[in-house]
Amino acid sequence: MSWKRNNPDPPRGYHHGNLKEELVRAALGLIREKGANGFTFAEAARMAGVSPAAPYRHFRDRDALLADVAARGFEAFALALTKAWDQGRPDAGVAFNRLGAAYLAFAHDEPAYYSAMFEAGLSLDASPELRLAADRAFQVLRHASEALIALLPPEKRPPSLMMALHIWSLSHGVAALFGRADGGRRPLPMSAGELLEAGVLIYLQGLGLGPRGKPAG
Amino acid sequence: MSWKRNNPDPPRGYHHGNLKEELVRAALGLIREKGANGFTFAEAARMAGVSPAAPYRHFRDRDALLADVAARGFEAFALALTKAWDQGRPDAGVAFNRLGAAYLAFAHDEPAYYSAMFEAGLSLDASPELRLAADRAFQVLRHASEALIALLPPEKRPPSLMMALHIWSLSHGVAALFGRADGGRRPLPMSAGELLEAGVLIYLQGLGLGPRGKPAG
DNA sequence: GCCGCCATGTTAGCGCTCGTCACATGAGCT
DNA sequence: AGCTCATGTGACGAGCGCTAACATGGCGGC
After folding, report:
1. N or C: lower Cβ tally within 10 Å for chain A?
2. Rounded to the nearest 5°, which phi and psi values hold at B183?
3. What is the pLDDT of residues B59-117, one digit of tens each?
4. Whose CA is closest to B110, among B142, B81, B139, B151?
5. What is the pLDDT of residues A49-100, one digit of tens each?
6. Cβ-based neighbour number of residue B206 at 10 Å
7. How far apart are CA A34 and CA A27, in angstroms?
8. Helix B192-207 crosses helix A192-207 at what angle (to 10 degrees)?
């Protein structure tokens, strides 16, 4: 157990000991405050108390740090979605609604992660971990969609991939356009959460899934 | 008629004569190639053949140029949507489908505009024109939604604002996640256009609007 | 217990950008 | 013709990304 720097501020000498983690934390703070593109490598270094060149020992370049943050974001995202889905309990319908709420909650509560994940303009194959983490998050949606679709009579079942993509798109659209507290966007007569919930409800109705996840309302 | 530089390349002296327009064109080219954040003020100046300080005579700063591009984008967008809607002919249903296709076509064919409009992280009140142009584009969707809703029996009519927001969100989500040719995103078994069309269809079905815009399929 | 390796830090520096100055030019009005 | 002011230029300071050469000291081998 090489206990490196669990305690908040051990007097550090020449070697920092935990710089990589600290840089990620600093990046998260900066992205939260100034957006994914306002964030600068140099400032993260300053915030961690090291020279501007130090970060390059841990990340190839600025984008690599961003990609790392994004990958962590997708993992946290996948976790949050999995937890919200909770294996489809008590039934697929309500669990699915929790999923939508969790999506928006994540975008709202973790703007730094969300920024890095979707607004930084990163290609998904900036790193393998990034793509893997993103896929894992999507799989939760995909799985939930399958569970809901299973409630339909076989001849009326849409492709679960398509359904998952629709839900993801609607969620992302709502989050991107109205879900942030940045003030710069359009004021609405309803919250983003209500908007998304209503949208999902109507969509499910369109598939033949009634209000509570039961076929044909 | 102060004919300032309508012809492609009149020998210019000290004064450019049409720098503002040229800068916007240069910006569009750069954004198309390198994304909204790769775009640089200095390079636009270079491209227009002027010194790096010249653009500041026409735009307060880099963001002002971006906002101008975005505003022009929203105007072109509103125009394209209006044209696609074509006053709801031949009927609201097919016209609405054209609207969705036009949305995606715009995102696909004018990536520079779309980038400036949605991915540059601009606040909508960066300039009054920007907000106005954005509102005008949204009004087209709103108007189309109202026309479709009017087909429903009064007691089943959802708020048209909500419906417009749903469509906008779904469209934007599809465009942002899968609609660009940037390659970095996820490969799909269907095109973004088909995905959106199917999604809108299901959504409308959920509202009680059948396949061809007729109530209750 | 000493020594040397090399991961991780430092300083220095290049090339670039944004944005601001004071200054130059010349188009158009009087 | 002469003035004026919008529009262009050149030089500059500050900040950033990234590289190169050098410094430090933690750790394993002897």
Report:
1. N
2. 75, -25
3. 999 999 999 999 999 999 999 999 999 999 999 999 999 999 999 999 999 999 999 99
4. B81
5. 999 999 999 999 999 999 999 999 999 999 999 999 999 999 999 999 999 9
6. 22
7. 10
8. 90
Q: Tokens 């010194």 map to which residue?
A: B51
Q: Domains (ranges, CATH) in chain B? A: 13-59 (1.10.10), 66-207 (1.10.357.10)
> What is the Cα–Cα distance from B60 to A201, expressed in whole angstroms?
46
Structure tokens at A37: 């593109």
* Radius of gyration of chain B from its Cα atoms, rounded to whole angstroms: 20
Using an 8 Å CB-CB cutoff, list chain B residues near A181: none
Q: For strand D, is any atom closer than 7 Å to the CB of A33?
A: no
Residues 141 through 170 of chain B touching chain A, CB cutoff 8 Å: 158, 161-162, 165-166, 168-170
The three-state secondary structure class of A8 is coil
Q: Is B37 in CB contact (< 8 Å) with chain A?
A: yes
CB contact under 8 A, A184 and B35: no
